[in-house]
Amino acid sequence: MESTKYNLEINKILNDISDGCYILNKDWQFIFINDAAITSFNKSKEELLNKVIWETLPKYKGTKLLPMCLKAYEENKKQTLVLRCEQQFKKMQIHPTKLGVLIIFQTSTDNKKVENETAYIERLKTIGEMAAGVAHEIRNPMTTVKGFLQLLAQDKNEQKNHHIFKLMVEELDRANEIITEFLDLSKNKPSIAQVTNINSIIKSLLPLLETRALKENKLILPNLSDTVDLSINRNEVRQLLLNMVNNALEAMTDNGVCYIETFTDKYENVCLVIKDEGNGICPSITKKLGTPFVSTKESGTGLGMSICYSIAERNNATIDFTTGSKGTTFTICFKSK
């Protein structure tokens, strides 16, 4: 009885949303479709329910919808897709379920806007693929050069140039770090989770973070509340925290304070908050934050934040932020259940 009531409530919620929404079972048959989707397809509910989508709506046959649905189901991970059909663009979110796939979509006739968004995404994908493809080849000569520089640094006859060799090795290491970030961003690797507490990760990094802050005449103030253990990838979340706090420190001038806070919200999510006292993020960048190659720093690549968003997604977390002239606050919420 409770299960039936729950299903009715879910159906009502899905039916009331303004976006088109439907569920396909594993045989690609419609088992639910809301009013917005019916209007978009210009067919009656009777014409669609229990019918195979490829037969009832042949315009979707041969498109990217099928492979993306298969990918969502096989990887058990949400997929996004922009599909062009009959002079319309459909922005789709494909969610895997026990029954099959839940698809939520928005229809747009603003061709130019959607085409620009699609082209932008495709350019980013192309750049990412190119970077991943050449990264390994670049690393080989860099390793050789670094090795010879280290040998020269040990030569007593070259002591006067030691500081130059050291600087060159440091720059090579920096270039190598950028390549590593490219590769990490291009990988669609599964996250290996283990039960751990977010506070233990923060405490293990505090000495390192506080040392950097003190060198820059800044301060880190932690305020950690008791939280439940999470099933997360400890190393990945450690990297996310490092990236976030380093960004916060770089955003501030002398005497700035970076606040690190943890708490449990009303939905029982474990939240990590990182707040700085910088000048805030430029409005022109806020909508693109997390996109590769978009950075608030003059010499930044924008990969650090992109990696943070990827890590959050792999660890069942979301990233939200508020920003203004008195600073920026990032809130990372991990689902505990």
Automatic annotation (TrEMBL):
GO molecular function annotations of the record: ATP binding; phosphorelay sensor kinase activity
Q: Where is coiled-coil annotated?
A: none
Highest taxon in the source lineage: Bacteria
CDD domains for this protein: HisKA, PAS
| PROSITE patterns for the chain | HIS_KIN (PS50109)
EC no.? Answer: 2.7.13.3
Histidine kinase domain sequence ranges: 133-337
User: Which reactions fall under this protein's catalytic activity?
Assistant: ATP + protein L-histidine = ADP + protein N-phospho-L-histidine
Top-level enzyme category: transferase
Return any one Pfam family short name.
Answer: HisKA
Keyword hit for Lipid metabolism: no
User: What are the UniProt keywords, alphabetically?
Assistant: ATP-binding, Kinase, Nucleotide-binding, Phosphoprotein, Transferase, Two-component regulatory system
Q: Which Gene3D superfamilies match?
A: 1.10.287.130, Histidine kinase-like ATPase, C-terminal domain, PAS domain
State what protein this is by name.
histidine kinase
